[in-house]
């Protein structure tokens, strides 16, 4: 295995088959499914150093390192996870998993429906953040991880981390939620719905069963991605990167690409439509829309978070207008009301929502410092290895009362 | 004529035919064209009380009042223009004109190309804000208006008002530019390009010649409008109006309309796709992209605005994230650098970009106060009626040095 400096090197995705049906929030079940995942680093003897990384809309289990067959395709959070990196794989056993319904190897709309032998397509059930967390808990069981040192994610990944603290309060010691929100705003839902409308109104969508027609709703997917992409960048960052720069000599008085920003967006849209499954786009944006842990508590987030036992690192970015700092602060305030340990940082970064994926030394130092504390605490408390028990939701070791803090 | 209280009542659009070719910024010409317009109030003997109202993307010449055949379709700025309203038609002669390339009666892509007898479609030339202003100047000539008391508009309409001060500096005394910008940002262009991509990639678009196929790219137009609509509203306003309200009893675990905001947006998109021409959408968004008076001055707006002679009322709205206050302030600062008379107000309104169209007592009082001053000044200076001279760009009466101010 090639060990690149600071990289986990060449990694190989693994799959696990789950034969026990998974009951979903919607009431439907998935009878039988596969999850694709990757691991980096070594699980310690106490099984106390495992970190779960949850992905957002278009990412996957491939968090860090390279695949042998694609020497350029580094994992989506390769700057965050690796030897000597903020989530240090010399210390932590890191797990990345492709969520149910995604299109990178785990069972999803493209997979054959056992009932018919044909791709699920439109018949793949709508899944929720909570369903993903349940499936991740089963993966944890299978890997012998009763309690995560941390569950971590950005954006939609942060929602999964938050959901873990509510669904399996004793199965994680730390929740790291970056550039996230306790629920989508009307504007967030609106952008999702426009993207879905673009996909569903593409004649090549065929009601979700385009696989049978040998086509893909590329036009709709491309428009969906363009819309999404605008919301991932800050206006300031777009102004800085592209401004009003032209690719043409001067105005061409037509509708083809003239401005750099058009070229960039169309390229992003076209590239995305080559590899991403349209049904997965619908499914994941709907999971985003539905996430709202306060819903069963009359909209009271503080009441909803009473169950949480983890300690928290919450990070937001000043120019993120998709999930702006005020949304992270809602989580922080609800946790503080319960006197929970929360470290909160608002990073003054120019890159909008995408900042959570980018190199920023203050951000990375903060996460590194937080994981240093998790590591130190682990060595101090000598967490015992609990027996591997599938679906365990109770009986986690007592938590250290020490407050985790980072600059 | 029915005179409703505070309304100009039932109005009748008029058309004017222009046989002299109009040379466009692109270098192309339109050989022969019609403009549709409406007027309200009476032109005084001195011809000094005329106000031109310029429309934005989806509006028209129908600024105020009602059409006999549609008793519900009040003009798009009916709350602003009428007897006793901020732009008081008891004092001012107000002109609304549908711009060239639009789809409400003036010559545009749907009109027959005299060369072929078939609709122009994709062959209709790209027009610019400057071209519209030139066409409006010819309309002014035809109406005997050598100098406007004011040229006024919101958003793209404000760009036209600003362009008037540069293209025909002596043909207007006041420029009223509301919720506008001296040029689009990269993000603004990006949203336009996604909207255009949605339209152009609709199979019913047929390269712009859908008229011949008896279809309309409704899916693309609807998506374009949904995107646009999100940018017209503030996130706060959307949260207030829709929040996460459901139209369904509870989550339905599907992709049809569930959230109120989805219902609203889809309705807006569908309605728009019933009446708006797709080629016009492309054309007007491109005119928005291209507007940049500083372009010929190396990006120096101050240098670009040196030509302006008018006095200005500039208004922005705090929650407008499409053309936020900082964009209006760029205009103000460039004018102040030339010691021009500028009244600037930033209105703390919750409604985002759309605020310029909505009732807001502070906003309307401000505009009313400004027009009171225009009216008073007019009576004081006894503006002489200059001879009607087509294409006159010089020779306007000396302007009063009195500074126009409003709360």
Description:
- The structure is a homodimer of 407-residue chains.
- With 407 residues, chain A is an alpha/beta fold.
- Helices cover 32% and strands 15% of the residues of chain A.
- Chain A has 10 helices and 14 strands.
- Chain A has helices spanning 129-143, 156-167, 186-200, 218-232, 235-241, 260-275, 278-290, 301-304, 325-337, 361-381; strands at 10-11, 14-18, 22-23, 29-30, 33-40, 50-54, 66-67, 81-82, 87-88, 93-97, 148-154, 172-178, 311-317, 342-347.
- An 8-stranded mixed sheet of chain A has the order 2-5-10-6-11-12-13-14, with helices on both faces. Chain A has a two-stranded parallel ribbon with strand order 1-7.
- In chain A, helix 1 (129-143) packs across helix 2 and helix 3 (186-200) runs antiparallel to helix 7 (278-290).
- Mean pLDDT of chain A is 92; it is low at 384-407.
- At the A-B interface, helix 3, helix 4, helix 5, helix 6 and helix 7 of A face helix 3, helix 4, helix 5, helix 6 and helix 7 of B.
Notable characteristics:
disordered C terminus; two-stranded parallel sheet; homodimer; alpha/beta; eight-stranded mixed sheet; 407 residues
Task: Report the count of strand segments of chain A.
Answer: 14
Oligomer: homodimer
Structural class of chain A: alpha/beta
Radius of gyration of chain A from CA coordinates: 21 Å
The largest beta-sheet of chain A arranges its strands as 2-5-10-6-11-12-13-14
Q: In whole angstroms, how far apart are the ends of chain A? A: 36 Å
What helical percentage do the residues of chain A reach?
25-40%
Largest interface, Cβ cutoff 8 Å: A-B, 54 and 54 residues
Kindly state the mean pLDDT of chain A as a whole number?
Answer: 92
The percentage of residues in β strands of chain A lies in 15-25%
Major sheet details of chain A: 8 strands, mixed
| Annotation field: number of helices of chain A | 10
């Amino acid at each position: 295995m090639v060990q690149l400096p600071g990289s986990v090197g060449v990694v190989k995705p693994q799959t696990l088959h789950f034969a026990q049906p998974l009951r979903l929030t919607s009431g439907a079940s998935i009878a039988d499914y596969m999850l694709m995942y990757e691991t980096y680093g070594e699980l310690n003897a106490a099984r106390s150093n495992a970190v779960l990384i949850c992905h957002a809309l278009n990412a996957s289990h491939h968090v860090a390192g390279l695949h042998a067959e694609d020497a350029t395709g580094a994992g989506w959070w390769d700057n965050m996870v690796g030897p000597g990196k903020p989530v240090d794989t010399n210390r932590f056993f890191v797990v990345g998993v492709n969520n149910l319904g995604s299109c990178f190897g785990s069972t999803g709309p493209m997979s054959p429906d056992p009932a018919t032998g044909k791709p699920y397509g439109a018949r793949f059930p709508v899944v929720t953040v909570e369903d993903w967390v349940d499936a991740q808990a089963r993966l944890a069981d299978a890997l012998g991880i009763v309690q995560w040192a941390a569950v971590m994610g950005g954006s939609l990944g942060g929602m999964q981390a938050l959901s873990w603290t509510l669904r399996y309060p004793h199965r994680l010691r730390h929740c790291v939620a970056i550039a996230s929100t306790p629920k989508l705003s009307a504007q967030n839902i609106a952008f999702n719905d426009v993207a879905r409308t673009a996909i569903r109104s593409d004649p090549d969508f065929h009601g979700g069963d385009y696989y049978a027609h040998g086509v893909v709703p590329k036009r709709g997917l491309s428009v969906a991605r363009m819309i999404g992409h605008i919301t991932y960048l800050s206006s300031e960052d777009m102004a800085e990167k592209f401004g009003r720069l032209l690719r043409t000599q001067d105005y061409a008085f037509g509708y083809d690409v003239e401005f750099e920003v058009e070229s960039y967006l169309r390229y992003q849209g076209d590239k995305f439509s080559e590899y991403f499954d349209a049904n997965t786009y619908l499914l994941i944006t709907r999971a985003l829309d539905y996430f709202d842990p306060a819903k069963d508590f009359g909209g009271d987030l503080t009441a909803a978070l009473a169950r949480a036992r983890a300690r928290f690192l919450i990070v937001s970015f000043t120019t993120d207008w998709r999930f702006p700092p005020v949304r992270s602060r809602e989580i922080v305030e609800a946790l503080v009301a319960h006197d929970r340990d929360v470290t909160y940082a608002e990073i003054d970064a120019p890159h909008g929502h995408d900042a959570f994926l980018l190199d920023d030394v203050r951000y990375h130092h903060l996460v590194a410092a937080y994981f240093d504390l998790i590591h130190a605490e682990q060595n101090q408390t000598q967490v015992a290895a609990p027996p591997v028990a599938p679906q365990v939701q109770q009986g986690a070791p007592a938590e250290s009362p020490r407050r985790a803090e980072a600059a």
